[in-house]
């Protein structure tokens, strides 16, 4: 059995491919919606944020032969927990991470933290669209809301807890866009025009995260983009495609021969 941390939209596809290769797969996710998607594909799923000890216990209880970490590129704590759990359980750790996009534009500025992104957005002013999710929304709210020269628009998944957080942090209805992706370049362009966006804040989530479309739409309209770089971790075994993950599993957790 393979224990998979499924934290991205492409993790479901990876889980299915691993199962089709002959392995049993148990996935951990943080939302009921993600669990439903996996279960509909025949993948067992546990819902909840597990620390290293809990992951190690689950791996042992399930008889896991390896831990595959397909958490989001920005889920730094989840990856650290997965690496520690693998070490504690004496299991191979294999990281799947989306290939990063490469940008070359005078309109794109890279930063190393959410705080730096928020400070730069405050410095630029204008209409700032946040496409960084709800987890770090408080960082941007503290630095941007209430400034007379800044209007903030927060775009995120349509979930009640996200709406509650927005309201708690002082976002008005007019500042909240709740939509489920994927987002095309055309849709991004329409949203930028509708709100009169002058600055977009996003994360280096990779091609599957539709960052390319966000930036292409912004470039079309002459909009500045602030991109938050990924955390840099020493993963050990890391692959940017599914084939590499499967090859590593065959090497480090081979299926029993008949």
Automatic annotation (TrEMBL):
Cited InterPro entries: Precorrin-6x_reduct
Pathway per the UniProt entry: Cofactor biosynthesis; adenosylcobalamin biosynthesis
Keywords: Cobalamin biosynthesis, Oxidoreductase
GO molecular function (one): precorrin-6A reductase activity
Single biological process term from Gene Ontology: cobalamin biosynthetic process
PANTHER family reported in the protein's UniProt record: COBALT-PRECORRIN-6A REDUCTASE (PTHR36925:SF1)
Protein name: Precorrin-6x reductase
Recorded name of the encoding gene: cbiJ
